[in-house]
Design goal:
By secondary structure, this protein is mainly β. Helix content is about 0%, strand content about 55%. It is built from no helices and 88 strands. Strands 27-26-33-32-30-29 form a six-stranded mixed beta sheet, with no helix packed on it. Strands 5, 6, 7, 8 and 9 form a five-stranded antiparallel beta sheet that branches.
Length: about 900
């Protein structure tokens, strides 16, 4: 197990104080709390404060720090432990004393967890979560939580027995030392440094529903990134990281395939994927790599993985595995920093921060830059650092302080250069500010200033008064036609801070197009600068009239001199005038805009042509949206054949209103005019009412066999008036005859008539026409001829002097009066009637073929003919 207590050995670093640290230029340190003093515990008893804060801290939105330390009320119980808080105002509180007596869920008694050395996590409800390395029901540690109301609960006891998915029973994980992590769904993940199926630790999950699961047992075998297999890692001490897909990353301080002559294994980096696959990402070695990774891993914004080793080279190294799986060493620690510990952390700019334990230091690696030591010679930093949104860092130092029991330190960056506004219009004054992390010494601190351009001039220096943390200085700018970015520098104590200060052209104008508009319709605004800008420039906008709205701001893009924006208007009852104001860096320009009241613009009908007794829809259209209360439009019609309501109201916010036009049947086509009027404005529209006319002619059945009849149906465009309507009929051929007309009864739109046909020798098309006025509809009716489809003889072979029966079949039933079929024989020995008649409605008829005695066989061809259609059959006559 990791030697957590080397710093407590008597005489070793025990006397190091805050003043012994070598603080880098531009870096300040504040001692916020010294551990180990006299203290009153939660139960009212007194003793020493907790000591040796080995765990990482967490901060809430108010700036209150939360952390753990050893000792406390139950120091005798395996070094005890305390959960504490420290407000921004410096108020230190005991939130929970570990290692005290407890009654567990099964009724048994024992001690609470001890040695809470893992990093804390605080959820959105304000609940603190952590682990204890020892103690609890099985004396192998636990998972605990403390709610915002102070309720302490043990969530899981490590060290018991665990049922595997296959039903086998194995030991649970033991001795958790790393912090825990939550995923986006509220599931908790962490590791134990020992225990599990194979002994060297586990990766576990506690679901949001409270189900505890072991995801991986370390120490057996692992699949490497190249697909091969090898020894798994041992002892996962550092915190894990979880990406957006649910993959979990971590490292093991030992294990893996690489071992030195002393039998020590170098450790490895692993990934547990959301699919359940466990992969070896990298195996450390003892030759050209770091080894013994003990700090946590961290992911950057694009998914690259970072970590550091405790040993290797001089004092360990910082490494990276990119999203392709490529491993690289970012930096190697020298004598100023040795033994990376705690968690690594990124700031908003992508700078990576961390701490070392053996030779205490705080370091930074800028994005794409080299290692910088911000502070060295600090007593042991085991829990790493915490970074707030302002860039200040905090750490619980495990040793040193007023009582040689550790302290909470705040590290602040010196020399932050900023501006009240980083952009001003040329000719307007600007203000710069320089702030430091520690109060200025007696006599004040002189900071020299410079600018790379006369467009933004600064004084030669500014003095931060004694005891103060900041001072302001003026920036004098000149008018210009194009944007200029000035580099302002502030230097003191060998440190130079620089920041960019932007001087932009003045705002020239704001305009609206169109400037005069009907209320409710949109317009387009344009802001124009006196010159081009090299960075995006924000211009704020405002209108003095509620009926005219503009966006809160518009951005002039880099390289441009102007930008457009949308102007929305709402309806007004009377004409209004609005003023639009544009403001940029203290410069204001205005334009006016005339808003006309909404009036009647148009009247239309749809459809504009209808049949009698049908309806159409009328629409009144305004020049813009109607104001509050709507607009009433009066309506009238020029004829009673088409009626409209007395008025229609266009609702507020709408620009159109619809109404129904009702018509009656007319004998002749009639045009009606409608008038809409409002506020002295009138508009007209017409509607054509069509008299009924033939719209279609249909004949069924069709085609028809000549000699039979069929039925025609005429359909009108609408129903007829009281007198009905005659539709004239005609046929292009006497083959199909029709009556001279058919009458569609009053109130109806259809009528039928009979078409009679004569027999034809061949299929004959006949055009039938229905006519009303000048409108006609036609139908092409085919009158089909009958054809002989078959001729059969039974029997087909006879002895001379006997007869055979013939059957003739035609293509369709015979018409009224029957159908005469002509018959013939090619031999005089076979005689038959000249014709046979197929009765009306039938499709076949029979006849007799008589024969004479013969001395030798012969074949006679029998033929049946209708018009041009015929069929033949052979009759064989034997002696």
């Amino acid at each position: 197990m990791r030697n957590l207590f080397k710093g407590r050995i008597a005489g070793v670093l025990a006397g190091l104080l805050l003043s012994g640290a070598a603080i880098g230029q531009g870096f300040g340190t504040n001692d916020l709390h010294d551990f180990g003093g006299t203290f009153t515990y939660l139960d009212g008893t007194s003793g020493n404060d907790s000591e040796l804060p080995f765990g990482g801290m967490v901060m809430d939105a108010a700036g209150t720090l939360y952390g753990t330390a050893l000792g406390g009320e139950y120091l005798a119980n395996m070094d005890g432990g305390m959960l504490w808080s420290l407000t921004k105002a410096g108020v230190y509180r005991d939130l929970h004393d570990f290692a005290g007596p407890m009654t567990f869920a099964d009724g048994s008694t024992g001690t609470d967890g001890t040695l809470p050395i893992g990093k804390l996590v605080r959820d959105s409800a304000g609940t603190l979560w952590g682990v204890s390395t020892y103690g609890s029901e099985y004396n192998h540690g636990n998972i605990w939580k403390l709610t915002s109301d102070g309720t302490y609960t043990i969530v899981h006891h490590f060290g018991g027995m665990y049922t595997m998915p296959d039903g086998s029973i194995v030991p649970d994980g033991s001795y958790p030392q790393a912090g825990i992590q939550f995923d986006a769904n509220g599931n908790m993940f962490g590791t134990t440094s020992s225990g599990g199926q194979f002994g060297p630790g586990t990766l576990w999950e506690l679901t949001a529903a409270g189900q505890y699961k072991i995801l991986h047992h370390f120490g057996f075998q692992v699949t490497n990134a190249n697909g091969s297999t090898g020894p798994d890692g041992v002892g996962p001490y550092g915190s894990i990281a979880i990406d957006g897909s649910g993959s979990i990353f971590g490292n093991c301080s030992s294990g893996g395939p690489n071992v030195n002559s002393s039998g020590q294994f170098a450790g490895m980096v692993w990934e547990f994927k959301a699919s359940g696959d466990y992969v070896d990402l990298h195996d450390f070695n003892f030759t050209d790599d770091g080894y013994l990774p003990q700090c946590g891993v961290v992911l950057d914004a694009v998914g690259n993985l970072y970590g550091a080793t405790f040993n290797g080279f001089v004092g360990g190294a910082v490494w990276k595995i990119d999203t392709t799986g490529a491993y690289s060493i970012l930096c190697i620690f020298d004598a100023r920093g040795n033994g990376a510990s705690g968690d690594l952390v990124f700031d908003a700019a992508g700078n990576l921060y961390g701490a070392t334990e053996t030779v205490g230091s705080i370091w930074r690696i800028p994005a794409g830059g080299a290692l910088t030591y911000l502070a060295t010679g600090i007593p042991s930093i085991v829990g790493g650092i915490l970074l707030d949104s302002s860039g200040n860092m905090y750490s619980a130092i495990a040793l040193g302080g007023a009582h040689s029991a550790g302290y909470v330190a705040e590290f602040t960056v010196f020399g932050q250069l900023s501006f009240v506004s980083s952009r001003v219009v040329g000719g307007n004054p600007g203000t710069g500010a320089i702030s430091i992390g520690l109060p200025a010494p007696a006599g004040g601190l002189v900071v020299t200033l410079s600018s790379n351009t006369a467009v933004a001039a600064v004084p030669a220096s500014v003095t931060i008064p004694a005891g103060a943390y900041s001072a302001n200085f003026p920036i004098t700018t000149t008018a210009l036609s194009n944007q200029v970015t000035a580099s302002i520098k502030a230097k003191a104590m060998g440190i130079t801070e620089s920041a960019n200060f932007v001087v932009v052209p003045a705002l020239a104008s704001v305009s609206a197009n169109p400037r005069t508009i009907v209320s409710g319709l949109p317009s387009t605004g344009t802001v124009t600068l006196n010159g081009a800008v090299t960075t995006d420039t924000v211009v704020t906008l405002a209108s003095n009239l509620d009926a005219v709205t503009v966006p809160a701001f518009v951005t002039v893009p880099a390289g441009s001199t102007s930008a457009t924006f949308d102007i929305a208007t709402s309806a007004v009852a009377t004409n209004e005038m609005a003023t639009i104001t544009a403001t940029n860096d203290g410069t204001k320009v205005t334009t006016t805009m005339s808003l006309a009241a909404t009036t009647l613009r148009a009247l239309s009908t749809m459809p504009s042509t209808v049949g009698g007794a049908a309806q159409s829809t009328g629409t009144v259209t305004l020049s813009g949206p109607a104001p509050t209360g709507g607009i009433l439009v009066a309506l009238s019609s020029s004829s009673t054949t088409a009626t409209v309501p007395a008025s229609v109201t266009v609702p507020a916010g709408a620009s159109t209103g619809n109404f129904t036009i009702s018509t009656i049947i007319v004998a002749t086509d009639t045009t009606v005019t409608f008038t809409a009027a409002s506020a002295g404005v009138s508009k007209t529209a017409t509607l054509l009412i069509k008299a009924p006319a033939v719209s279609s002619l249909v004949i069924a059945p069709a085609p028809v066999i000549g000699g039979s009849s069929t039925t025609g149906t005429v359909t009108l465009t609408g129903i007829t008036s009281k007198s009905g309507l005659k539709v004239t009929l005609s046929s292009a051929s006497t083959t199909a005859t029709v009556p001279p007309y058919v009458t569609v009864p009053a109130g109806q739109s259809t009528a039928t008539f009979t078409i009679r046909t004569t027999t034809v020798a061949a299929n004959t098309p006949v055009t039938i026409t229905a006519l009303t006025g000048s409108i006609s509809k036609t139908f092409s009716l085919t009158v089909e001829s009958l054809t002989v489809t078959s001729l059969t003889l039974s029997p087909s072979t006879v002895t001379g002097g006997t007869s055979s029966t013939g059957t003739v079949t035609v293509s369709a039933p015979a018409p009224a009066g029957g159908l005469s079929v002509s018959l013939s024989s090619s031999k005089g020995a076979a005689t038959l009637p000249a014709t046979v008649v197929i009765p009306a409605g039938a499709t076949s008829a029979t006849f007799t073929v008589s024969t004479t005695h013969l001395s030798s066989s012969l074949t006679a061809a029998i033929k049946a003919t209708v018009g041009k259609s015929s069929q033949s059959a052979n009759l064989t006559i034997t002696p």
